[in-house]
Every structure is written in structure tokens, then in C-alpha cells.
Amino acid sequence: MRRPMISGNWKMYKNNQEAVRFVQDLVDKLGAVTGVDIVVCPSFTALSEVGEALEGSNIMLGAQDVFWTAEGAYTGEVSPHMLASAGVEYVIVGHSERRGRFGTWPADWPEELRSVFGDNDVTVNWKARAALEAGLTPIICCGETIDERRAGSTDAVVRDQINAAVEGITANDTHSLVFAYEPVWAIGTGEVCDADEANRVLGLIRALLRDRFGTVGDELRILYGGSVKPDNIEGLMQQSEIDGGLVGGASLETDKFVPLVEAAQRIRGEKT
Ligand code: PGA
């Protein structure tokens, strides 16, 4: 049985003081939860302090991005080894925002900025491999834009992104891989993907992973992300393929994040 996971992607929110206060509150409220992997992903600058505040708790530390070499003259980048030394266990790789695929492009940003964060299928693969080599678990993201969905290319987009992301990764590495299907049009919009449809796409990802990794593919967790909220988590968690959520907005407030973890425990945790 795959252990459910609720992972909070804080994006560019919470300074160090806010971050530490927030996780202290989470530790109080979620300390007794078992059977669910709980992860928070603060910004780089808050990782160490949040990691210290989480020590000895059942909440794990994740980062939102990583570079693909151990060290070097790469101004502004953070290596997987640096993350590991800060106590990080998980790292989000290939989030659509890092691929420059936003649901809504800010009107005052010129189009040239679309590639400013730089992720593409090649860098996502390199980042995932580098994370694994450093002992981190990558949370590899994929998902289609609204135009791609309307054009009927959802399955092809997801298939291509997943195949590219796992290129060169062997079954030996796969005990520590997590995937997240996040339709771009559902991120931050309040418009959650229908649970049945999310489950269908996750089934497609599962089939790809089985093809590539054999039975190990059945053990890898696949999360759904995109407007996960307390009022839709139950329907999502009841789906056979959905092993949890990668959560943005609702991970920033205790009274939203705690019910997500509790629902995951209630619906899936009891079976682990
Ligand atoms: P959201 O973000 O929950 O705010 O839609 C999800 C994500 O981007 O990971």
C-alpha cells in the first residue's frame, strides 16, 4: 500500500519568522498524525530555520527547486547537496511555474520573461537525477495548460513530460521518486480538476511508470495538485490512483492545511 502524502508548496510566501511560527503551530496540531507523510516546502532562505523547528517531529522538509550539479560557478543557484545539508528530504522539480507555464501570465510582464525560470524537459530530468544522487526525493511535476487540454493533447503532454523526466533513471533509484499531476489551469484558480479525470490521468502516469520500472511502478506515489482544498480533498483521496496532494494556497494557513492531512489520514492512512 502506498503511504499517502500531503506536501505544501509555499511558493514565494512567508518570511523566516512567519515560517517558523507557522510550522510550530503545525507541529502542535499534527503531532499525533500517523500514516501520512507530511512535507512543507518553504523558500530557500527559510529552510534551515524551519528544519530546526521541525526536528523530532513527523513533518518533513522540502525545497521548491534545485540545481543539477554539486557545486560550481553558478551564481544564485542551490545544489542538491546544499539542500541535503540543510535537512531537506524532498524537492519539487519541474513545477509549471518554473517551466514558465503560468495559468495567467501577468499582463505587465513581457513575453520574453516566459523562459526566465528556465525549466524544460531536459533541466527537469537533470534536476531529478541530481536530487536522487544526493539522496533527496524529487517530486516531479507535470501537467497541461488550458490550451493543451482544449486541443485534446493532455495525455500526450503528460506522457512526454514524464518520459523526459525519468530518462536515465533506473529501477534501483525509484524507491525515492514522487510524481505530481498539476493541470496548469487548476493551479491557484480555485478550479479543481474533476476527481475522476485527475484519477484517469494519474492512471496514465502509473501505466508509464509500470512500463519503465516494472512492479516498482506500482509503489511510486503520484499526487494531484491544483486548487486542493479542505472541501475537495475527500473526493480526491477516495480515488484509487491519487496518493495525496501537492498543495499551494491551502498549505499557507493552518486551518486549511491541517484538515487536508487529517482527511488523507482518515481516508487512506488507515490502510497503510
Ligand atoms: P494551488 O497550487 O494549490 O494554490 O492551486 C498548487 C501548486 O502550484 O503546487
Name its key features:
single chain, eight-stranded parallel β-barrel, 14% strand, binds 2-phosphoglycolic acid
| Overall average residue pLDDT | 95
Bound molecules: 2-phosphoglycolic acid
The tally of structural domains comes to 1
Largest sheet: 8 strands, parallel, barrel
Element pattern in H and E: EHEHEHEHEHHEHEHEH
Tertiary shape? globular
Q: Can you walk through the features of this model?
A:
- The chain is of the alpha/beta class.
- The chain has a single domain (5-81, 107-271), classed as Aldolase class I (TIM Barrel, Alpha-Beta Barrel).
- It is built from 9 helices and 8 strands.
- The protein has helices at residues 16-30, 47-54, 80-85, 121-133, 146-150, 154-165, 195-213, 233-237, 254-267; strands at residues 5-9, 37-41, 59-63, 90-93, 137-142, 178-181, 221-225, 244-247.
- The protein has an 8-stranded parallel beta barrel, surrounded by 6 helices.
- Helix 1 packs parallel to helix 2 (47-54) and helix 1 (16-30) runs parallel beside helix 9.
- The longest helix has 19 residues, at 195-213.
- It is globular.
- The structure holds 2-phosphoglycolic acid (PGA).
- The site of 2-phosphoglycolic acid (PGA) has 13 residues, from strand 8.
